Amino acid sequence: MIAVGAPDPELTRIARAGFSVLALGALVMVAWVVLAPLSGAIIAPAFVKVDMNRKVVQHQEGGIVKQILVRDGERAKAARLEAERAFLTEVMFPPELAARSGEPKVAELLQRETALFRARREALDSQIAVLRKQIRQTEDEAQALAGQIAAEARALKSQRSDMDCENSQFTIHKPRPELQFRSAFVN
After folding, report:
1. What gap in Å lies between CA 24 and CA 26, rounded to an integer?
2. Burial zone of 78 (CB within 10 Å; 0-12 exposed, 13-18 middle, 19+ buried)
3. Which DSSP symbol is given to 175?
4. What is the pLDDT of residues 126-166, one digit of tens each?
5. Which of 38, 162, 175, 115 lies closest to 184, judged by CA?
6. How far is it, in rounded angstroms, from Cα 11 to Cα 33?
7. What's the CA gap between 102 and 80, in Å, rounded?
8. Where are the alpha helices (DSSP H) in 36-103?
């Protein structure tokens, strides 16, 4: 019997096993922290930019602004999208935006939209080239298949001709029934 104040040996064994697993895990983690080389990180130049540069907007004569309809860069983006839609070779930015191209933020925006346009245009051109190549290959395949069908048709016609020729040689001529009937009355 187990005494009332004494711990259960089974519970003690389970608790020791649990603490042993935790201690072993902590020991492995400490060993990894000490031994793992962390100097191999990749360093790259970058900058963080907020999606919208917030600015205070006031009406010239006072009042409350209900809605701002244009975000930074939307006119440049609209010009790029229009150039993509019209399949142009370069982006034509609005004159008021092109006039401000000396400002650093505007120049960065125009450069970014131009680079994006060129990248998307190159991707589109390469897709068009791949599709044209696939069309040529499909046309060549269709011509080859048409030639194969014509050859099979000629072979079938030749086989039918040969079969008709062979059948005509082996045709058994049966006497016509009217001739048999007459011969019966002649005797």
Report:
1. 5
2. middle
3. P
4. 999 999 999 999 999 999 999 999 999 999 999 998 888 87
5. 175
6. 33
7. 19
8. 74-85, 95-99
